[in-house]
Design a protein that fits this description.
250 residues; mainly alpha
Amino acid sequence: MIRNVVHRYAIGRKIFRGLTWLGLHELSVLLSVAALSAGIWVFVELADEIAEHEAIGVDETLLLALRNPADHSDPIGPGWVEEMGRDLTALGSMSVLTVITLAALGYLLLAGRYRTTLFTLIAVSGGMLLSTFLKMGFDRARPDLVPHGSTVYTASFPSGHSMMAAVTYLTLAAILTRVHAEPLLKAYLLIVAAVITLLVGTSRVYLGVHWPTDVLAGWAAGAAWASFCWLVARWLQSRQVVEGESGGLG
C-alpha cells in the first residue's frame, strides 16, 4: 500500500511539473503546436479538395472581385496599385528571399551565434526544398479567368511565392525570437514577418497568377514549417545545442 502511495505521489509530481511547464510562461509552446497542427490540417484539406476539383467556387469569386467587371484584364484600382502589387510580389521571389536570408545569417555570424546560424541555414533551406517538392507534387493549372500580371513558369498549387515567403520570413522571425529575450522585440519581429507574408500572398491573387486557395495553402504550409522550426530551436536551446536567449546581440 505504501508503495502504491509513493508511486502515485511520483506520478502526481510529474504531472504537476508538466502542467507547470505548460503554464503561462510556456503559452508560446502551446500556440506554436496549435499553429503547426492548424497549418498541416488546412493544407491537407485544401490539397484534398484540389485533388478532386480543378477549381473551387470561392476561387473564381475572389479572383474576379479584384478585377474591373467591364474588363477582366484590368485589376481594380489605379495603375500605381498594380505596380505596387508587382513590387510586393517580388518580396517572395527566390532572389529577394536569398538576399534576406544571407543578411540574417551574416547578422547572426557577427553576433557570434555560430550554431544558431547553422540551424537557421538548415531551417530556411529545408523549408524552400519542401516548397519545391510540394509544388512538384501537384499539377493544378494557373487561373485562366484573367490575364496574368506577372510571368509564371510552374504549376499553381501551392503558391510558391506565398509559401517561400512564409517559410523565410516567419522562420527567420521565429528563430530570432529565440535569440532575443525582450517580449516587445519578439512581437515586432513576428508582426513584420506576418505582414510581409500576407502582402506577398495577396499580391499573387491581385496579379491573377494564383487562385486564392493556392495562396492559403502556401501560407498554411509555411506557417506550419516556421512553427516546427521554432519548437525545434527551443528544444535545442534547452539542451544547449544552440545558443540561448540574450538581452541583446551586442
